[in-house]
Amino acid sequence: MADLISIAQINSHLNRKNGYSMSDEFNEQELHRMRNDAEEKLARRTPAKAAPDRSAGELLHELQVHMIELEMQNEALRQSRMELEKSRDRYVDFYDFAPVGYLSLSNQDMIDEINLTGAALLGVERNQLFQRSFASFVATEDRDRWYRHFLKVLASDDMLTCELELLRGDGSRRYVRLDCLRISRAGKTPVVRIVLADITERTLAEETVRAQEEFFRMIAENVEDFIAVLDLEGRRLYNSPSYARLFGDIEAMKGTDSFAEIHPDDRESIKRAFNETVQSGIGHRLNFRFVLADGSIRYMESCGGLIKNNQGQPSHVVVVSRDITERIKYDEEIRNLAFYDTLTQLPNRRLLNDRLAQAMASSKRSNRYGALMFVDLDNFKSLNDAHGHNVGDLLLTQVACRITSCVREMDTVARFGGDEFVVMLSELDVDKSESIVQSGIVAEKIRALLAEPYLLKIQKDGNAATTLEHHCTSSIGVVLFINHEASQDDIIKWADTAMYQAKEEGRNLVRFFGLKG
Fold this sequence. Notes:
Shape: elongated
CATH architecture of the largest domain: 2-Layer Sandwich
Strand content: 15-25%
Mean pLDDT: 86
Structural class: alpha+beta
Number of helices: 14
Number of strands: 17
Strand order of the largest sheet: 2-1-5-4-3
Low-confidence stretches: 1-11, 13-26
Distance between the termini: 169 Å
Radius of gyration: 54 Å
CATH superfamily of the largest domain: Reverse transcriptase/Diguanylate cyclase domain
Number of domains: 3
CATH topology of the largest domain: Alpha-Beta Plaits
Helix content: 40-55%
């Protein structure tokens, strides 16, 4: 009876292992004991011999041991099957849902195997892809290149790569990279394993960059402006073709110091601005001068900007410059027209007024006197009437030179109009009497020099040039000023009054306003 109970216990245990309920009479401790016995017996098991005299209890015990052994083997088999299923699931996940496509092609270019990612790249359901030609998905313009590449893969033991454009099932296009390897097995035709990576975004980005580079290259090579790319030390990395107009061979400029040709007086300020741009990222608009190989000067207007890399770090500096030499000359011409007499190149009335205002302000600071002289040529009209205005202009030009030679560089000689000139002396003396003496000496020097003979070359109607000796004197009126005790108009008017006094008293004289000759 005890043996029958043991068999029932074992059956109950096996039923539980197979998903059935287990009787409450089953003793776990007994099962554990029997398992240990079975394991010990299994360890020392020898081939069974016929023993007709063995008792039923021994046979029953032997049966129990074998049943436990069978249970243990069944459990091990179940565990192995579970691990195998897990491995298979992992493989399926890795294969089908990999970020790249995997496929196998026959040596006839037919798709034998493909994962879900690969099918998605081709734009067709996977079950519709088997035994279809891969070439049918290659864009027409790339198909010949694909055939050549496929044949090369079949003939090579190495992994070979190519990039091409796919025409997907829905008509859209994708750019892909194919890493291809031939697999050969004994007795079987070779197959080609392919890793298919989508490079559409990268390819489009590269095409965009190439288009931008071409666009900016066309701009750089066809604009009149000067475009330079410099490293963070100011060495030249690129110069647009326009630089050839200034420096010749632009290829020879690569790697050279971009500050070398800048005028020495401008160089430090330009270096300072360059370094500030590198440090702050803020560009500067500056004017500077280039000194060319022949010593000539070109005036440049420049604006720089900092370019950063993908990490936000300074990479290089782009400088766009413009040759403003002609503009500078034009501005200078405009300024000359506005402030200088076109015939004598002396300051005109507008610039004289400005200089007089500066002299009065300086007089206020230094408490020194200044003097203004009004110079008018005597009998100038007769020269014009006899020989024409061209000869009169020759005389006025020489008069301007003679007056200028009599004064200091800090003083001003201006043409007031016609044959009238104004001389302004600044920073004389704090004593009025001494200032009168100083200005009187200059006025007498001017009067005497203007009275010397003039040699004027005259040429009329293509005839040979002749030299005319002309004598001309001048009448000079002088007025002193200090601080702002009088207005500019009064000072000029008083000097003019003194000049007329000199004319009335016989010409070729110097007279001071407010003083008796």
